[in-house]
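ESCALATION

Customer reports they have been waiting on this structure for their group meeting. Please prioritize. Original submission:
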Amino acid sequence: DQVRVRHLEEAEVDRFDLGSLVFIGAFIVPHGIIEVPAAVIATGLALNLGAALMAVRPNLTVGHNFLLALADFLRVFALVVVPMLLLAAWVEAEITPEGVVWFLGR
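Update from on-call: job pushed to the front of the queue and completed.
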């Protein structure tokens, strides 16, 4: 499926004689501006979770330190990452098609 999607994207670029920057601007940037930071935040949270096993805070056990890091992970993931991904999905479904139509109609 990935190959077919990539082929379709390349065909669309060729069909409308779009430059790569216009293609990226129309199809990726509108939702990617939200989605990429969400992925970076989630990655940082996961790294922090792993670091909690390696670098234990003073006066805490490894398990307690991990639970505190897990609580931070879940709180930030639920209150920041998930809303960002939902917003990015909405932008991809609602705004991106409008941007594509605008770019192709120029």
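Sent to customer with the following note: The chain has a mean pLDDT of 82.
Escalation resolved.
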